[in-house]
Every structure is written in structure tokens, then in C-alpha cells.
Amino acid sequence: MPCLNLSTNVNLEGVDTSSILSEATSTVASIIGKPEA
């Protein structure tokens, strides 16, 4: 199963990251031709 590690130096407190991570997951799955888990 593919794995995406995302790190940042930006403070994400109070930020809804679910949409960012969902879009990143979808994009990576599309690029590598694998289904989302």
C-alpha cells in the first residue's frame, strides 16, 4: 500500500487539514495508478 508522509514547519493548530490530506491522497493514488485505501 502506498504511503504519503507530509511534513511542514507551518503551525496547523486550528486548521482543518482533512481536505488537504484528502486531495493529496487522491492525487497520489491517481498518479501511481493505485486505489485509495
UniProtKB/TrEMBL annotation:
Source organism (scientific name): Trifolium pratense (Red clover)
Cellular compartments per GO CC: extracellular space
Lineage: Eukaryota, Viridiplantae, Streptophyta, Embryophyta, Tracheophyta
InterPro entries: Macrophage_inhib_fac, Tautomerase/MIF_sf
Family per record: Belongs to the MIF family.
Gene Ontology MF terms in the entry: phenylpyruvate tautomerase activity
Full protein name: Macrophage migration inhibitory factor
Entry coiled-coil feature ranges: none
